[in-house]
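Cross-check.
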Amino acid sequence: MENIQVKVKDIVLRPVNEVFDSILNPKKLSKFFISRASGPIKKGQNIIWFFDDVGGELSVSIKEVILNTCISFEWAASGRIATVKIKLDSIDSNKTSILITEENFPLDNNGVKQALGQTQGWTDFICCMKAFLYCGINLREGRNK
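Predicted model, tokenized:
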């Protein structure tokens, strides 16, 4: 059976090191994505991300961390183990390209539904990241279980 991949790409008007640090640093990540983390993102670590606003938590297995370039991990946010890669590319001193991929989802009704849900989630991730980096606003505040 064929598989499909989630791909979400955007431009963030911040230097690549600032975008990378906002993902790597759990104190910053908690300002736009998670509520809290059991530890920092480091290659080979297994951490828990807590989403207190929706009453959930996810185990995250960090596979790769390349400074200002890439973070890769496995998790089961969609109900199945999937690999996420967040790739960053410096366009200029104040502009970063971000590409988030998540794979592999089976090309069937359930897989397409899961992939669409993850696409929505990663789009929200980037929107919330931009609000935090540009204005210091946490768009997740006010969300409830």
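The chain has one domain: 3-135. The longest strand covers residues 95-106. Passed to J.P. for a second look.
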